[in-house]
C-alpha cells in the first residue's frame, strides 16, 4: 500500500490537503461547550403549596402524584420529600430510557392527576436534568438606591430576559429574586361591625366588581357584539369606589370599609448581591452553540444594558467558560511544548532539522483531521473530548518518531530513499496497528460503565479513537510522503555513524545491559518483587473523584433549623455579609425558596446558599475561619456546610444520595411513626454512629384544635371558623385582575400581629348575629413536629444516616432491629452504588486485559509473548503510584487518565521491542552459520540497540512536554497535574522496563521453547 501511494505523491498530498480543508470547515461548525450534552436520567417534580404543612402536602399532593407516576417506563427509583409549603419528587430512570419521551410521559400523567389535586394549587413543575442546563454565567441586576424594586423586576422579566434570549447560542434565561405587585385589602373591622356587616360582604363586592361574562354576545340587526362588563376593576381606586350593601339597605363605598393599596407580594425567597437585594439572571446555552462566542456576546450586551438602564447596576459572576478556556489552553500548551521538545530531542538524537519539521507538519494535521471524526459522530468540542485529544497526542508523537527513525535506519542501511520509505513503514506497520488496538482495548471498554461516568467516557473514547486512527493514517501515508519530499535532494544516504550524544547514551545502555544479563536471575527477581511493591502503594494513596483544585471562591450552605420567615432569613444573611465586609471580593446569596425554573434541589424557606469570590487563597482561608466562628457563635442550632464553590464538573457528579441510609416503613400503617414511640426505639439502634434522616428531623410548630362543643353550643358552622382562620393566617386571594398575560392578585392583607393576639381580637358572627371572639373556639399548643415527610415507591419511610466505617457489616442487625418492631427495613445509598461501580470497573478492566492479550496473541502468533507485555503494565502503574505518593497527590479521575496514557505508550514500546526481536531472530536463524541460541542473544541485543533511540525519544519528549504543567498555576494546571505525575512516574520506570525487563522476560519466557523447536 505504501509503495502504491508513494508512487503517486501529488494525488496523496492533494487528498490530505482536501481532508484538512474539509476538517477546517467542520471545525468552525462544531459546537463548543463545557460538557457533553448528557441526558441525566432524572426528572424532578416540584410542588408549591403556600401555607401547607408537610403532612398536608404529602397526603393531598405528593401521594397522588406518586401513585400516578408509578407506572412510568424505565422508572428505577422514586423519592419524595414534603416540607413546609414545598414538596419535591425525584424520578430516576434507567440509562437506556429516552428522556425526551419520559419527560413527555411525566407531563401527560401530571395533567391527568391535576384534577385530583387541591383546588387553587398551581400545576406542579416538571424539570428535566441535562448537562446543558448548568448555567454558563450569572448576571447580577442590582437596583440603585431609591429605585422601585418591582419596576426592576418587570424590567428584568419583560426586557432584559428577552434581550439576552435573543443572543445567538442562548437557550434559556432563568431569573431568581423577582418581586411581584399585588393589591391588598385591609378591612376596617370596627367600621364593618358598626354597620352590621362582615368581611364576606366586602369580599363579595370585590368579586362582583371583577366579574366578566366570557363568550356572551348580543345581536343588533346584522351585527353581533361581544359583551364586557363595565364594572371590572383595574386599580386600587377602582376597588375603593365599589359599592357595598349594608343589611339596612344603605350603599357604602368600599373605601370606607377597607384600605386598598398596591404592595409587594410576600416573598418566599430573595437574592442578595453583597448586602443589597438584587435579581440574578442565569444564562443557559444551546447544546450546539459555541461557548467561546457566546460569552463575549453576553459581555457586550451587559455594556449596552449599563448605558440603556442607568438606574440599575450590572455584574457578571460564576463564569463557567473559564474551565473550557483552561482545557483549550492546556491543549495548546501540550502542542506547543510537544513540538518544541520533539524538535529539540530529535535534533539532539538525529541532528537533522528536517525530521522535526516533518513532525511539526504531521502533529497539527492529525489534530485537524480528527475533528472530521467529531463531526460524523456528533461530538462537540468540550472538556471531555479535548482531554481525549490530549491523551492521543503522546501516542501520535510516539508513532511519528518510530516511523521516522525506522525510515532513517533503513536509509542508513543502504536502501534508496523510495525503498527506505516503503520498507521503513512496512516493517513497523503491524506493530503500530497492534499498539493502537491495545491502547483502545484498555480505554474503549470504559464506555460501558453505567451512569454518568460511562456517558462521559463516550466522548473521550471517540476522541482517542479518532486521533489514534488518524495518527496511523498520518504515520503510514503522510510521514513517508513528507520524508520522501524533504530528502529527495539528498542523493547519498546519511552517514551511518551515530552522533556523539547518542553514542554516549548507547554506551550507558550497553553497560546496563551487560550488568542485567550477567545477573539474569537476580535482575528478574528484582523486577518481579517490584510488581507487588509498586501496586501496594495504591493502598496508601488517597482516593477522590476530581483532584483538589485551588479555587478562589467558596460557598456556605446554611439551614437555620428554625421556623423563620424568608424575610428573617434575608436579614440574617445581610447581617452576616455585613460582618464579613472587606474580606471578600464579591458575594451573592440565594435565600429561601428559589424561583429558578430549572432548580432541581431542595427548596426551603429556612435555607440559604452563599457564594464568595476572593482575591487569593490566603484571604479565602481567613474568611472561611471567620464564617465558621460567626455561625457557631451566633446560631449554634444551625446546620451549615462550608466548602469550595462547585464548578460544572462538581454539579454534574454531585449526588443528593446519602452515603449509607437505613430506611424503615411501618408495616401496620401508612404514616410516619410518632416521635413519642420512635425516640425510645432509636435509643436501641444497633450502632451509635448515626444521624437523623430528613424524615426524623424536627421543628417547632403550632397546632390549632377547634372546640367542637362550643361551636355546637353557639351554633357556629365549622367551615365558618376554618374560613376565618384561612383569611387571618393564609394568603387569602379574593380574585385576580387579568390583563394581557399579567395577573395581579387582590388579597386580604395579612396582619403583622402575633397569632395569639389575632385570635383574641378577631370576631365571628353567630347564628343570632352576635359577635364572638375567635379564640373562644380555637385552642392552640406548641409541639415539635417532623420537619419533612419522606416517601419512595413503597410509601412513607423514615431513616437514619449511618456514619460507621463498615456499615454493611451491621446490615443483619438493622433488619433484626426493624423486624422486632414490625417495620420493614432496607439499606440504600452511595455506598452500594460505589460498590456496584467498582465491581463493574473490575469486570471491564479484566475484559480490557483479555482483549489486549488476544490482540497481541494474534500479532505475535504466540500465547507466551503477550504475557511479557501484560507484565510491563503493573511495573508502569507502580512507577506512577510512587510519583503520585511523592508529590502528595491521590488516585482520581485525572490520574487514572494519566495511567491510561502512560500504559498506551509503554505497551507501544514493548510491542515494538518484541516485534523487532522476533524479526531479527528469524533473520539470524535463517543464516546457517548461526545456531539458535546465539541467534536469540544476538536478536535481543541488536533489538535493544535499534529500539533504544525511539523508546528514549518518545519517553523524553512526552515527559519534557508535561513538566511545565507541574510549575504552572491556575484551574487547568490543577486539573492536569495528577495526570502529569502519573505519566512521568509511569514512563520513567516504563522506559527502564522497555529497555531491560522486556528482553529479560523474553529470555526467560520464550527462549527455551523456541530453542527446543529450533
Key descriptive features of the protein:
Alpha-Beta Plaits; alpha+beta; 1014 residues; 30 helices; Multidrug efflux transporter AcrB transmembrane fold; nine-stranded antiparallel β-sheet
Mean pLDDT: 82
Major sheet summary line: 9 strands, antiparallel
- The unreliable regions are 1008-1014
Question: Percent helix among the residues?
Answer: 40-55%
Report on the architecture of this protein.
GO terms for molecular function: xenobiotic transmembrane transporter activity. It comes from Algoriphagus hitonicola. InterPro entries: AcrB_DN_DC_subdom, Acrflvin-R. The protein has 1014 residues and is α+β, with helices and mostly antiparallel strands. The chain folds into five domains: 2-32 and 324-546 and 834-1013, Up-down Bundle (Multidrug efflux transporter AcrB transmembrane fold); 36-131, Multidrug efflux transporter AcrB pore domain (Alpha-Beta Plaits, 2-Layer Sandwich); 199-209 and 226-259, no CATH class; 553-645, Alpha-Beta Plaits (2-Layer Sandwich), CATH 3.30.70; 661-740 and 749-833, Multidrug efflux transporter AcrB TolC docking domain, DN and DC subdomains. 53% of the residues lie in helices and 18% in strands. The strands form seven sheets. Strands 1, 2, 3, 4, 20, 21, 28, 29 and 30 form a nine-stranded antiparallel beta sheet that branches. The longest helix has 36 residues, at 451-486. The two termini are 33 Å apart.
Amino acid at each position: 500500500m505504501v509503495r502504491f501511494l508513494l508512487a503517486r505523491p501529488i494525488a496523496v498530498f492533494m487528498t490530505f490537503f482536501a481532508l484538512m480543508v474539509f476538517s477546517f470547515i467542520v471545525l468552525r461548525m462544531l459546537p463548543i461547550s463545557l460538557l457533553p450534552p448528557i441526558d441525566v436520567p432524572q426528572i424532578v417534580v416540584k410542588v408549591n403549596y403556600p401555607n401547607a404543612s408537610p403532612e398536608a402536602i404529602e397526603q393531598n399532593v405528593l401521594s397522588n402524584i406518586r401513585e400516578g407516576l408509578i407506572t412510568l417506563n424505565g422508572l428505577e427509583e422514586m423519592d419524595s420529600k414534603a416540607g413546609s409549603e414545598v414538596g419535591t419528587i425525584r424520578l430516576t430512570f434507567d440509562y437506556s430510557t429516552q428522556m425526551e419521551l419520559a419527560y413527555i410521559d411525566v407531563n401527560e400523567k401530571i395533567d391527568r392527576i391535576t384534577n385530583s389535586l387541591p383546588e387553587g394549587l398551581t400545576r406542579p413543575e416538571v424539570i428535566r436534568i441535562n448537562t446543558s442546563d448548568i448555567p454558563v454565567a450569572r448576571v447580577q441586576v442590582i437596583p440603585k438606591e431609591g429605585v422601585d424594586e418591582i419596576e426592576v423586576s418587570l424590567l428584568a422579566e419583560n426586557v432584559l430576559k428577552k434581550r439576552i434570549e435573543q443572543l445567538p447560542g442562548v437557550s434559556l434565561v432563568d431569573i431568581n429574586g423577582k418581586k411581584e405587585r399585588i393589591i391588598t385589602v385591609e378591612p376596617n373591622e370596627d367600621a364593618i361591625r358598626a354597620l352590621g356587616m362582615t368581611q364576606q360582604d366586602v369580599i363579595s363586592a370585590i368579586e362582583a366588581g371583577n366579574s366578566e361574562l366570557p363568550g356572551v354576545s348580543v345581536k343588533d340587526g346584522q351585527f353581533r357584539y361581544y359583551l364586557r362588563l363595565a364594572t371590572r376593576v383595574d386599580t386600587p381606586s377602582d376597588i375603593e369606589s365599589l359599592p357595598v350593601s349594608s343589611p339596612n339597605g344603605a350603599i357604602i363605598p368600599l373605601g370606607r370599609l377597607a384600605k386598598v393599596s398596591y404592595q409587594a407580594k410576600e416573598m418566599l425567597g430573595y437574592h442578595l448581591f453583597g448586602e443589597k437585594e438584587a435579581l440574578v439572571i442565569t444564562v443557559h446555552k444551546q447544546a450546539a452553540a459555541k461557548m467561546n462566542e457566546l460569552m463575549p456576546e453576553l459581555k457586550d450586551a451587559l455594556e449596552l444594558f449599563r448605558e440603556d438602564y442607568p438606574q440599575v447596576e450590572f455584574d457578571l459572576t460564576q463564569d463557567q467558560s473559564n474551565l473550557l478556556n483552561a482545557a483549550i489552553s492546556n491543549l495548546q500548551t501540550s502542542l506547543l511544548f510537544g513540538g518544541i521538545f520533539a524538535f529539540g530531542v530529535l535534533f539532539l538524537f538525529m541532528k537533522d532539522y528536517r525530521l522535526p519539521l516533518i513532525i511539526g507538519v504531521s502533529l497539527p494535521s492529525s489534530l485537524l483531521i480528527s475533528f472530521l471524526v467529531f463531526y460524523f459522530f456528533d461530538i462537540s468540542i468540550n472538556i471531555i473530548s479535548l482531554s481525549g485529544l490530549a491523551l492521543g497526542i503522546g501516542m501520535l508523537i510516539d508513532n511519528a518518531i518510530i516511523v521516522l527513525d525506522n525510515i532513517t535506519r533503513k536509509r542508513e542501511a543502504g536502501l534508496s530513499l523510495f525503498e527506505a520509505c516503503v520498507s521503513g513503514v512496512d516493517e513497523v506497520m503491524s506493530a503500530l496497528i497492534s499498539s493502537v488496538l491495545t491502547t483502545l482495548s484498555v480505554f474503549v471498554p470504559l464506555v460501558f460503565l453505567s451512569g454518568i461516568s460511562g456517558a462521559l467516557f463516550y466522548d473521550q473514547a471517540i476522541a482517542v479513537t479518532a486521533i489514534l486512527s488518524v495518527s496511523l493514517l498520518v504515520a503510514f501515508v503522510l510521514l513517508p510522503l513528507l520524508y520522501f519530499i524533504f530528502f529527495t535532494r539528498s542523493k547519498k544516504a546519511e552517514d551511518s555513524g551515530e552522533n556523539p550524544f547518542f553514542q554516549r547514551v548507547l554506551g550507558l545502555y550497553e553497560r546496563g545491559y551487560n550488568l542485567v544479563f550477567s545477573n539474569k536471575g537476580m535482575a528478574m527477581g528484582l523486577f518481579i518483587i517490584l510488581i507487588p511493591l509498586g501496586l501496594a502503594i495504591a493502598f496508601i494513596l488517597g482516593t477522590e473523584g476530581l483532584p483538589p483544585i485551588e479555587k478562589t471562591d467558596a460557598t456556605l450552605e446554611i439551614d437555620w433549623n428554625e421556623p423563620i420567615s424568608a424575610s428573617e432569613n434575608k436579614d440574617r444573611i445581610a447581617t452576616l455579609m455585613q460582618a464579613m465586609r472587606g474580606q471578600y471580593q464579591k458575594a451573592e446569596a440565594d435565600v429561601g425558596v428559589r424561583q429558578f425554573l430549572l432548580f432541581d434541589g431542595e427548596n426551603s424557606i429556612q435555607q440559604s446558599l452563599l457564594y464568595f469570590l476572593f482575591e487569593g487563597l490566603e484571604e479565602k482561608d481567613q474568611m472561611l475561619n471567620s464564617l465558621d466562628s460567626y455561625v457557631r457563635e451566633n446560631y449554634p442550632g444551625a446546620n451549615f456546610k462550608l466548602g469550595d464553590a462547585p464548578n460544572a464538573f462538581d454539579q454534574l457528579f454531585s449526588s443528593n444520595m446519602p452515603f449509607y441510609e437505613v430506611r424503615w416503613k411501618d408495616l401496620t400503617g401508612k404514616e410516619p411513626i410518632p416521635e413519642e414511640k420512635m425516640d425510645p426505639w432509636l435509643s436501641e439502634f444497633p450502632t451509635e454512629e448515626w444521624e437523623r434522616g430528613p424524615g426524623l428531623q424536627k421543628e417547632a410548630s403550632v397546632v390549632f384544635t377547634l372546640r367542637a362543643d362550643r361551636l355546637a353550643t353557639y351554633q357556629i358552622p365549622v367551615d365558618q371558623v376554618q374560613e376565618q382562620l384561612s383569611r387571618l393566617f393564609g394568603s387569602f386571594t379574593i380574585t385576580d385582575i387579568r390583563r394581557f398575560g399579567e395577573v395581579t392578585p387582590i388579597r386580604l392583607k395579612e396582619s403583622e400581629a402575633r397569632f395569639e393576639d389575632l385570635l383574641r381580637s378577631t370576631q365571628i358572627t353567630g347564628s343570632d348575629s352576635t359577635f364572638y371572639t375567635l379564640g373562644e373556639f380555637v385552642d392552640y399548643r406548641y409541639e415539635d413536629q417532623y420537619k419533612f415527610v419522606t416517601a419512595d415507591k413503597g410509601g412513607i419511610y423514615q431513616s437514619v444516616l449511618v456514619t460507621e466505617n463498615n456499615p454493611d457489616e451491621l446490615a443483619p442487625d438493622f433488619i433484626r432491629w426493624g423486624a422486632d418492631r414490625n417495620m420493614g427495613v432496607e439499606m440504600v445509598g452511595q455506598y452500594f452504588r460505589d460498590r456496584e461501580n467498582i465491581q463493574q470497573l473490575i469486570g471491564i478492566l479484566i475484559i480490557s486485559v483479555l482483549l489486549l492479550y488476544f490482540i497481541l496473541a494474534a500479532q505475535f502468533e504466540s500465547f507466551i509473548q503477550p504475557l511479557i507485555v501484560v507484565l510491563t503494565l503493573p511495573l508502569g502503574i507502580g512507577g506512577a503510584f510512587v510519583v503520585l505518593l511523592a508529590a502528595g497527590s491521590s488516585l482520581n479521575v485525572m490520574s487514572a487518565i494519566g495511567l491510561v496514557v502512560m500504559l498506551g505508550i509503554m505497551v507501544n514500546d514493548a510491542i515494538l521491542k518484541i516485534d523487532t526481536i522476533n524479526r531479527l531472530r528469524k533473520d539470524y536463524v535463517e543464516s546457517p552459520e548461526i545456531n539458535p541460541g546465539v541467534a536469540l542473544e544476538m536478536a535481543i541485543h541488536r533489538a535493544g540497540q535499534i529500539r533504544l533511540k525511539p523508546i528514549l525519544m518518545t519517553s523524553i519528549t512526552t515527559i519534557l512536554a508535561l513538566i511545565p504543567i507541574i510549575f504552572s498555576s491556575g484551574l487547568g494546571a490543577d486539573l492536569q497535574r495528577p495526570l502529569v505525575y502519573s505519566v512521568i512516574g509511569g514512563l520513567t520506570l516504563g522506559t527502564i522496563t522497555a529497555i531491560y525487563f522486556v528482553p529479560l522476560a523474553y529470555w526467560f519466557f520464550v527462549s527455551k521453547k523456541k530453542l527446543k523447536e529450533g
